[in-house]
Amino acid sequence: MQGSRFAFGPFVLDPDAGTLTRDDAPVAIGYRGLKLLAALVGRPGEILGKAELMDAAWPGTAVEEGNLTVQIAQLRKLLGPAGDAGNGSGEWIATVPRVGYRFVGAVERLGEAKRSPLPPPGKPSIAVLPFVNLGGDPEQEAFADGLTEDLITDLSRVSGLFVIARNPAFAYKGKATDMRGIAHDLGVRYLLEGSARRAAGRVRINAQLVDAVSGEHLWAERFDRGLEDIFAVQDEVTARIVEALLGRLRAPPPRNPPSNPEAYELCMRARKLMDDSPRMAREVHLMLTRAAALDPQYAEAYRWLAMNHWMGWVHWGGPTEANREVALELARKAVAIDPDDAGCRWVLAYLLAYERSFDEADAEFAKAIELDPNEADTWTALSDIAVLAGRVEEGLEHIRKAFRLSPFPTSWYYLTLGQAQYASRDYGAAIETLRRDETYRTSSRRFLAASLAQLGRLEEARAEVELFLVGNPHFTTRHWAETEPFRDAATLDHFVDGFRKAGLPA
């Protein structure tokens, strides 16, 4: 159902946007009602059990059946008579005694609403599509993905290019390639696609650069080299693309590639598993520790290890002085090994901000942007820090830039956007952002609860607090306020006020 809209009678329901219209006019519908209606119209004519419907509207929460009865009654009142629905009761939603409910009447699935075109970036723009693993061996999938990610990183460090980030590019992995459609969705003109095969110590790579507007192939080449030459091949592909797009050969600043193939592969696997669950974090920790032991001069391993320690410190029972010190030490080591890696710089900047070393953090953020203006993660992290410093409009500008570079981002981008929208007192927008599937089940619920509370929707706010505390049982507002890198007292007071109204523990 994701991406679809549904038309019935004079109504159009867009579950993703969270909207219901009647004859193109907005209808005020509550969150629970919207979820119930989406479940019912998504399967018209089918009987949906009460338990299934309650799970759709109150996921992960035990509620009384009477809550469902009340919501169904409110939906019927909101929708009004169904005209020729043909169920005898004149209602859109029919009751099946002792079982559940079903939606009656004709429903037309309209498909996804047409997206507005993204603004042109004003410079040559490119997305690197996931390279196809020609070997067919699932064990080699990480190699093909790692090659794609490294090419994205190398190209994004060229200041004359606009380069789409990893996450939106990988949204097309394994799907049929519609070059023009992909370019439209991502707001770019050029696409790089290719394939890779690794076997018996050798690697074969095919790559081609396509102008998605004209369909013209600007450059294509095949590389058949020893595995030890993989980084030289990446450098050559990058240089050829830059030459094709900018009219000159120009390489990004030299990097510090790993010297151990096993360390490289461990790091590639670990960065795909970076997650905010304790079990996954422990697994990632072991992989990255092994990578650093195999190649002590591999900066990226230390960078992700720093984040691994930091996530443990912030989210699961911290902060502990030991984890804070280790995370910061690892981030400094990563920058010392490879000072030209923007990823290492922004991670260090972020941790420095949490240590209240604000001047040093600001300098590291500035250096990260200078090295790689296309690194969407940098702009997202910088948005977080700017908002907590009271520079809310600046924070909104940064997160918008991150979304332009990464149109289909991961959950923490939505959390950061929702936090900025709350800080700007745009509570309705914050609620819409933080209820998206991408972020709804994360710790962003605390900002969702605060936004609801500020609009006086206290029952919904309390429900979100209850869900948030299931995954964060030790949370207190005081501890959060003490550990977040606030630089502006008024901004801090605004967040604390929302948490208090929502009922989060003091």
Task: Please outline the helices and strands.
Elements: E1 6-8, E2 11-14, E3 19-22, E4 25-26, H1 31-41, E5 48-49, H2 50-57, H3 65-79, E6 93-96, E7 100-103, E8 108-109, E9 125-128, E10 132-133, H4 141-156, E11 162-163, H5 166-170, H6 179-186, E12 190-199, E13 202-211, E14 217-226, H7 230-246, H8 261-273, H9 278-294, H10 299-315, H11 321-337, H12 342-354, H13 358-371, H14 376-388, H15 392-405, H16 411-423, H17 427-434, H18 445-454, H19 458-471, H20 477-483, H21 489-502
Parallel strand pairs: 9-11, 9-12, 10-12
Antiparallel strand pairs: 1-2, 1-8, 2-3, 3-4, 5-7, 6-7, 12-13, 13-14
Helix pairs in contact: 1-2, 1-3, 4-7, 8-9, 9-10, 10-11, 10-12, 11-12, 12-13, 12-14, 14-15, 14-16, 15-16, 16-17, 16-18, 17-18, 18-19, 18-21
Brief overview, please?
This protein is α+β, with helices and mostly antiparallel strands. It has helices at residues 31-41, 50-57, 65-79, 141-156, 166-170, 179-186, 230-246, 261-273, 278-294, 299-315, 321-337, 342-354, 358-371, 376-388, 392-405, 411-423, 427-434, 445-454, 458-471, 477-483, 489-502, and strands at 6-8, 11-14, 19-22, 25-26, 48-49, 93-96, 100-103, 108-109, 125-128, 132-133, 162-163, 190-199, 202-211, 217-226.
